[in-house]
Amino acid sequence: MDAGIGQRLARLLIIFLFTSVITLFLSPNSSLNAQTEVGSEPIRIMLTLWPPNFLFYVAEEKGIFEKNNVNVELLFDPDYFQASEKYALNDADGITIVFSDAIIHDSNGVETKVVYNIDSSLLGDAIISKANNLTELRGKIMGVEGINSFSHLFTLKALEKVGLSEGDVQFVDVPGPNTSNAIDKGEIDAGHTYSPFIEEATDKGQNVLIYANKNPGIIVSVLAFHSDIVEERPADIENILKSFNEALDFYKSNNEEAIQIMSAKSGLNKEEVTRGFNGTKLMSLQDNAFISMNPKNTNSLFASGEFASTFYTDRGVLTENPVLSEIVEPKFVNDLYKKSQPLSN
Question: Which residues pair with 191 in a beta bridge?
Answer without folding.
Answer: 128, 143
